[in-house]
Here is the input.
Amino acid sequence: MRATVDMRGANVKSERPRRLSQSGQIAVEYVLLLLVGLGIYILIANTMVSRNPSNPGFVIDRWQKIVRVIGHDIIEK
Here is the structure.
């Protein structure tokens, strides 16, 4: 760590190491936020569009119901 002298002659610690540690902390926080976002995305995607036949996602389930209604082609209604 380098010390510099200000106008009054007092030693002032360099701000460089603090900035480096802060940028490292920002990088770690960014990666953690990305991981949390990815986890939330996976949960939402599995809930919405899961193609598991025993427990399909709600979008797939609704789409299958629409296709069945169109496939029956009830003319009287």
About this structure: The helical segments are 16-49, 58-72.
